[in-house]
Design brief:
It is a single chain. This protein has 151 residues and is mainly alpha-helical. 62% of the residues lie in helices and 5% in strands. The protein has a two-stranded antiparallel ribbon. A hairpin with a 6-residue loop joins strand 1 and strand 2. The longest helix has 31 residues. 17% of the residues are buried.
Length: 151
C-alpha cells in the first residue's frame, strides 16, 4: 500500500493518508467513512436479521458439503460453492452495520451448533452429553455477545 505521511495540525504526530485505498465491498456500495456510526434502530435490526440469514446459510452450506460428497457428482458440488458466495456476501453485508468481531463470533458459534444439530437430524451424527454441554456454552456465549453488543 502507498501511504503518504503528513504531520498533524500540531506538527507532532504523523497521520497516514492513502487516497488509493478502498474497502472490500463484495459488490455492495462502500460507505464512507468506514467507522461505525450511530444507526437508526430499524437499520440495526435489519443488520441483525441479515446476520441471522447468514447463520442459516452457513449451516446449510456446511451440511451441503457432506451432501455433495455423498452424491459424488460435479453438479452437486455447485451447491456448496454457490452457498459459499451467498454466505460470505450476507456476512459482509451484516458487518457493514455491526462490529466485525461480534458478527463473526455469532456467525461461527451459531453456525457450529446448527451444523451439529443438522448433522444429527439429517445424517444420524451422534453427540454425547459433553458435546451438548459445550454447545450450550457456545449458545450462552452468543447470547451474551448479542446482549452486550453496542449495535
Amino acid at each position: 500500500m502507498f501511504y503518504a505521511a503528513h504531520e498533524s495540525k500540531d506538527g507532532t504526530s504523523p497521520v497516514h493518508h492513502c487516497p488509493h485505498r478502498r474497502a472490500a465491498s463484495f459488490g455492495f456500495p462502500v460507505r464512507a467513512p468506514l467507522q461505525p456510526s450511530p444507526l437508526p434502530q430499524e437499520e440495526r435490526r435489519l443488520a441483525w436479521v441479515i446476520l441471522g440469514i447468514a447463520v442459516f446459510t452457513e449451516i446449510i452450506w456446511a451440511l451441503s458439503l457432506k451432501w455433495a460428497a455423498t452424491v459424488g457428482s460435479w453438479q452437486a458440488s455447485v451447491v456448496p460453492i454457490a452457498l459459499s458466495f451467498l454466505n460470505m456476501g450476507l456476512l459482509a453485508l451484516a458487518m457493514r452495520d455491526l462490529p466485525a468481531g461480534t458478527a463473526y463470533a455469532i456467525w461461527t458459534g451459531l453456525g457450529a451448533v446448527g451444523v451439529i444439530i443438522g448433522g444429527m437430524i439429517l445424517y444420524g451424527d451422534r453427540v454425547n452429553m459433553a458435546q451438548i454441554g459445550f454447545m450450550a456454552m457456545i449458545v450462552i456465549g452468543v447470547v451474551g455477545t448479542k446482549l452486550s453488543a453496542q449495535a
